[in-house]
Amino acid sequence: MIMRQGFERFLWSSRLSVMIGVFACVLAAFVVFVMGVKDVVHMVALLWDYVLTGSYEVRNDLVMVVVEILDTFLLGSVLLIFAFGLYELFISNLQAAEDSVAGGKILVISSIDSLKSKLGKVILMMLIIKVFSYFTEMKPTSMLELLYMGVIVVLIALALMLSKDKK
Fold it and tell me: Which residues cross the membrane (predicted)?
């Protein structure tokens, strides 16, 4: 009986090892946000070049950098959402998130399914941004390629429709 209680206490305490993942995800999110800020500085430099030259090539580079910035900050938010979810599922509720008047319910994770849903939506947005960044580089040479691009847009719209919360 005492041995079982000790083992159960050890097992319950082992959930605290999840804190390693929480800290790692938060640290990685900060690193990704710093990368995003560096990309924003690069974007400002490109914007300045575009204003001075009006070059179409610089404009294309500027559009691609903006898309990369969106992708970078979304990746950082995925890492934060995952860190919040791990903490809420294994350690404790985030009281600050529940008390927040600025939409604190967004980051309240109550189950693994809730975490998967929130992460899935952000990852879907990242994939959509990546697809459209490929579209900016593509120059369709035939009607079939244009049709494929149209089908991809329809599939993306369908994925967004299916990922919408049902209320």
Answer: 12-37, 62-87, 119-136, 142-162
